[in-house]
Amino acid sequence: MGPRIGSDEAGKGPVLGPMICAAVHASPSVIPDDIDDSKRLNASTRKRLRETLESHTAIDIGTAVIPVTQIDGPRTDMNTLTLNGHIAAIADLDGVAAFNGTIVADASDVSESRFATRLESGLIDECNGIDTIALNHCSIEARHGADEDDPLVAAASVIAKARRDEQITALAKEYETIGPIGSGYPSDQKTRAFLRRYIRTNGKVPACARRSWATVDDIVESIEQSSLSDL
């Protein structure tokens, strides 16, 4: 099997921090045997695999960071942002405009075919409007759960998640005076407690939080109600 490209994202659902998209271009034969969907791996394993992937001369990696400010934009949605992140990460690879193999993406749309069609269209636009991908008969696939069974998509998943882990570690250090920030996911009680402490202390939502998330609205509302009860 020849070189392929796999793409995936990490951080679509958290209330804290950016979303990271990654793409990996390589022959499946050079991907570590213990690669897997990043959600099945602990942080230390993801870090080790990331270092292995990034140090391999036969593996090309592209990434894209979607910051909180962009996620909170009034005229966007997470499906479009995720799609654009995949496009940007793939376009970040060396020589992608001339690639004529198979691109496999972990579909973030309920419709796999729609995600694949939008991905191809976006890549053509990203390559300066030149229909290089179609002319070279590049095959573009999008599948739910591709990070579980495709080694290139799994590798992209590990890169994206490990880099997001790094971002969360940096945020934890930045906000250490407030207390632990947790994983950044809405279901994490440490994350929710951090948001409550920060908002009560500073009277505003921290810059690392996705203000458009319902989690933040709920916490702000509960603090406001609590303040009224104290009057």
UniProtKB/TrEMBL annotation:
One biological process term in Gene Ontology: DNA replication, removal of RNA primer
Domain RNase H type-2: 2-225
UniProt key word Iron: no
Ligand binding (a divalent metal cation): 8-9, 106
One Pfam family from the record: RNase_HII
Cofactor remark: Manganese or magnesium. Binds 1 divalent metal ion per monomer in the absence of substrate. May bind a second metal ion after substrate binding.
Keywords from the named record: Cytoplasm, Endonuclease, Hydrolase, Metal-binding, Nuclease
GO MF term set: metal ion binding; RNA binding; RNA-DNA hybrid ribonuclease activity
Catalytic activity, EC: 3.1.26.4
Top-rank taxon: Archaea
InterPro entries linked: RNase_H2_suA (IPR004649), RNase_HII/HIII (IPR001352), RNase_HII/HIII_dom (IPR024567), RNase_HII_hlx-loop-hlx_cap_dom (IPR023160), RNaseH-like_sf (IPR012337), RNaseH_sf (IPR036397)
Chemical reaction(s) catalysed: Endonucleolytic cleavage to 5'-phosphomonoester
Annotated CDD domains: RNase_HII_archaea_like
Enzyme's top EC category: hydrolase
Protein localization: Cytoplasm
The keyword Metal-binding belongs to this UniProt entry's keyword annotation: yes
Family of this protein: Belongs to the RNase HII family.
Alphabetical list of NCBIfam families matching this protein: ribonuclease HII (TIGR00729)
Functional note: Endonuclease that specifically degrades the RNA of RNA-DNA hybrids.
Protein name according to UniProt: Ribonuclease
Organism per entry: Haloquadratum walsbyi (strain DSM 16854 / JCM 12705 / C23)
High-level lineage: Archaea, Methanobacteriati, Methanobacteriota, Stenosarchaea group, Halobacteria
Gene: rnhB
